[in-house]
Hints:
The structure holds two protein chains of two kinds. Chain A contains eleven helices and twelve strands. Chain A is α/β, with parallel strands linked by helices. In chain A, the strands form two sheets. Chain A has an eight-stranded mixed sheet with strand order 6-7-8-3-9-10-12-11, sandwiched between helices. Chain A has a four-stranded antiparallel sheet with strand order 2-1-4-5. Chain A is globular. Chain B is globular and about 65 Å long. The chains are: A alpha/beta, B alpha/beta.
Amino acid sequence: MAVASQRAPAAGPAATALLRLEDVAVELPSPRGVLRAVDGVSLELEAGRTLGIVGESGSGKTMLSRAIARLLPRGAKLSGRVDFDGQTLSALGPEALRRLRGRALAFIFQDPMTSLNPVLSIGSQLIETLREHLGLETPKAQRRAVELLGEVGIPSPEQRLKHYPHQFSGGMRQRVAIAIALSCEPKLLIADEPTTALDVTVQAQILDLLAREQRQRRMAMILITHDLGVVAGRTDEVAVMYAGRVVERAPTRRLFRGMRMPYTEALIAAIPELEAPPHTPLKAIAGLPPDPTRRSPGCAFAPRCPRSAARCREAAPPLAGDGQHQFACWNPLGPSA
Amino acid sequence: MTDSASDTAQQTGTPTDAPSLLSVEDLVVEYVLGGKTVHAVSGVSFALGRGETLGLVGESGCGKSTLARALLRLTQARSGRVLFDGVDLATLRGPALRALRRRLQIIFQDPIASLNPRRRVADLIAEPLRIAGITDAVERRRRILDVLAAVGLDAELALGRFAHEFSGGQCQRLCIARALILEPELIVCDEPVSALDVSIRAQIINLLEAMKARYGLTLLFIAHDLAVVKAVSDRVAVMYLGKLVEIAPTERLFRSPGHPYTALLLQAIPRPDPEAPLPERLSVGEPPSPLAPPSGCRFRTRCPRAATRCGEQEPTLREIAPDQFVACHFPLGRDLSNGGAAP
């Protein structure tokens, strides 16, 4: 399997990484055969940094994030190694993992109802989390719950504690989910498309809130999204996924200044430009993403790639490059000046 | 009826040289939800010129999809009129309504849900022909092959397959083919690319643009993504809580929005550029419920420019620049591109 063996020397020694994935793969059973959702991903994330994982549907970005906490669907087969905060998660038992999730490692999802219980008031959900994970006594947990709701921008938090999730709007519900996720001071927050279901004006507010909390708490964050616009201004580094693999990875500014993998460039080019006059034809990517149950020996993007050559169809390129900027391509775009 | 259609066109800013194909006059749609009235569309008027693409933007719950459904009489309007080519749709019954509906089609957001997964593509595409009473087998076959080729699907491969065998992007191509097969004049596109991945979205937008040119279509393009709307629209209308707050030529609206809500939407767009400044803190809350819209201007509860008058008197659409209509007591006048004084 072609996997990046390069460690990033410029990004600091591996020992300081909060999260380290090594050759992580996830296979899912499907009616059409085994679906290799994540295909050998190695990544590192330092404490206090934000990593954007960008990909289209089916690229494996969500499965990769679930693999970190082993929140995988039944029947999924996980391989590779996950180290987080000095522990090897891939070796932990279910009980140890459960204690870790929601404490040092928290999630928020596209649909906040994934993490909220519809029949409990948000107060009891928050207080329960604080008591369970931090061992706070009820009066203290209650005070902390009010503080947390205030911090995430819920107006009149004391009254709102008694309310149920359905009494909140979508944006407010996501704020509650964020409050619960932050309540135990996690070291890593994984936000999976946290604003995709929200309107554009609410999206900007939620992204601001996440960025502010991330900075203040010096918490690491993985922001998973299909929207390059979302990662551009809000992440330190970006990993682009295609067909289960990381195909390009770089510090955010560096990536946007000069992408080397043709897929990344095509993905950015396909976004309509706000500055372009109406009826400017868009630069579409031809063809369709590959069928994840059928793996080709070559680069998965080759059939859609304008730069593909014979070699691209024969062997998958490894993720390679310098310590900062890595890409998986036999025929990369030139480095920018 | 033709007279009143052109009156409306003048009131709401269709460029006067384009005869209007669709005009909407003071349309009101309300429905009852758990004993309360939802004010989904509250007195919307606009006109759509033949051959024009009008973009309609707004956040979820603003009434844009309800408006689309009411235009096609898929939802009953409480009051107001929809004139298609000068004919009031509400006055038509039976065969006359069916004949008119052939000229008016709709494409929905979820292409997969729009197609019956258990039917073959040949039947799905031919269904409108059957409903329209086109029974000649040769004619049907010719039309099906034409339209599939036009939307970029291989008829040989597609016709015998079931809808569930296609990806989201291909299903949207099928939906477009089905909308085109009766050669309509107007297509209402309700969030046609929102459910698609970025790389597929551009293909479908380019396809819609090509189909518009080829079939001489008029489009009402509803979306919440402003960059997508800008790419296809000649004019853009902005809806907020059931009201039209601004309607203007596309470049004008993006360069120099007149309504504070339009400006807020433009500011909130995430740009795929790490050097672009992030929006200043948008401390503006969320849209209120359409069950109890605020008095006066419905945007005033989130508006940085709101004054007493905004709660007392409802602003109506007025022309603040050529063809730019804004419903605001205190419209913005500055040009965003030079950050300076009023134009």
